[in-house]
Design goal:
With about 700 residues, the chain is α/β, with parallel strands linked by helices. It is about 50% helix and about 15% strand. It has 3 domains: about 300 residues, no CATH class; about 70 residues, no CATH class; about 220 residues, Rossmann fold (3-Layer(aba) Sandwich). The protein is elongated, with a radius of gyration of 32 Å. The two termini are about 30 Å apart.
Length: about 700
Amino acid sequence: MIQLIARKELVSLFGSPLAWILLALVHWVLAWSFLARLDSFLHIQPQLAMIANAPGATEAIVAPVFAMAAVMLLMATPLMSARLIAGERHNRTLALLVSAPVAARDIVLGKFLGLMTFLCVMIVLATALPACLLAGGRLDLGLVLGNAAGLFLVAACFASLGLYLSCLGTRPATAAAATLGLLLILWMLDTPGESGNLGLARDLSLLAHYEHFNRGLIDSFSLAYLTLFVVVFLTLSSHRLGGEGLHDGAGRALRHGMLALLAILVAASLGYLARETRTQWDISQNGRNSLSQASVTVLENMHGPLEAVVYAAPQDAQARDVRRIVREFLARYQRAKPDFNVTFVDPAEHPDHARKAGIQAPVEMVVSFRDRHERLDQFNEPALTHLLMRLARPGERVVALLGGHGERRPDGMAGHDMGAFGSRLAARGYTVETFNLAATAGTPAGFDLLVIASPRIELREGEVDRLLAYLDAGGNLLWLVDAGPLHGLQPLAEKLELTLMPGVVADPRARDLKLPMTVALGIGYGRHPVTRDFGDTTMFPFARQVIVDENETWRSVPLVEAAHQGWVETGDADAAMAFDAAYDVPGPVNVAVALTRILQDREQRVAVVGSGHFLTNTYLGYGGNLDFGINLVNWLTEDEDLMTIQLRSVLDAGLAFDEPTLAVISATLLAILPLGLLMSGLIIGWLRGRR
């Protein structure tokens, strides 16, 4: 009987032109928002690649659209739920319905399932939007599924409350207005506060519970609350409908009020138990709600208590409970390190204390480990984990980039510079500076690593001699060498027993990623600390082959093999290039090598990479380039403990669409689907008018 009632309700809903018009309108608004966010993401994508903890495409595009879909459901549900019982009462058909040999519970469940089926169509339309992104990249499917589950649960809450108020109302318009008003109150009940009624308001807020799902987080308390919400209002609806037709109005109201009170008390008790035993599961593939293994490793290597003093008022200028936000963020670290102690101080109440600590931001934290202290005003995992790495690092590490010959600048923001990589090194505790041979005398010294990043001006013989002296003195070196002339550094290649082959590495597989063939894909890695447990694809634009000659001085390990189906192009590197067996060298091609030797009772370390482009601002965010570069620097500066400490990469960091694909997606979402839904409604309305 429940199925029959649900089917009848569904036929009634889809037999109304209003339902189809509502579907078309909701889909068009969501599609417009989706495409607008997609366009913004594609424009700022290069800048996001330079930002630590930058959101992926799913978080930046899909999650906000789902949040808007939740609001659209909140607005649409009262229109559809008001007619369920109040409409029957207004049309004087309710008495006939309740007098039928059908339990009130079956009537309520049937009408609820019918309405939920209609709302699920809206949810499916919203969930289908992210599928368009698969044409240009990857999706965080866990985040998508979490949002879809959250939409389903809040839609069930909307429908159950709407159904109950429809049972109470005599007119659909009155029931719809009451449902919308109460839903808005419950949705916006998320008021900042520490405890008492304000904390209770957050526990009762539908928005607060939906936010967990919107972040890809399954929270046991939210699951329990939303489920209890639906059960309570369906139970009250069944009881209210079961008393329909009884003449004892006062007694019926009293009994219903007592049942409502009892149901709320039982639900509150169960909710309290769920709150006290709450558990959370992060189902997002990017792991945005959990501490990465890299951060856990950092904490495990910090032996001794960790102290943090957070300077923050109870509320910020937007009346947000900033202390709660910070406390929830730091709780992930405290679970991994129980002796991580956190104290909150209100700068307004203790201005001297804040002034002495050098606090400048509205919300700032001072983290102390042993005798070292550092301030932090960015509350995200990369920022805090890098701060902990700096505190745990024994001594200072200085990385110097050779300058004065047109090299790539460590602080430059141009596409060919390495400013983003320099910023990432600084965030990990390295001091990054430029070293100019003309401004100093003698053998280069005073740093842990010298980086030669693709000079474009010829080095003088005396400058090259000083670089060779640095190497003879045991200095560690990272040489990023582009295809083309060496600009006076041939003696350095000879010193390292290297043969740097002419030509550019061509990789046909790059076209599968919508990249030119001059971007060589590294998928084969040698057995070395730099590439231990490294499985990401690295990308080396305009790379050259690096060969180590047989020698007894250096121990060499090939780090990266690229272009497994490619070759070394000795002719013009353009779109028309093709393999020529007479002149070209077939792949795979070695594009990076690590060299070591024992000198003065210590191991000297050198790495040579046949592409200076792969760490530039343009290409740093591609594949595993950043992680590979950081691993190189960690190994070269002998930070063995930090070799594997890399924060998780974002699987949906980039999207690539061609213009025809975007045009097809836009036309389908903004025109074809909405018009199809709208035409269905108009045809149904026309057919009903002819009957």
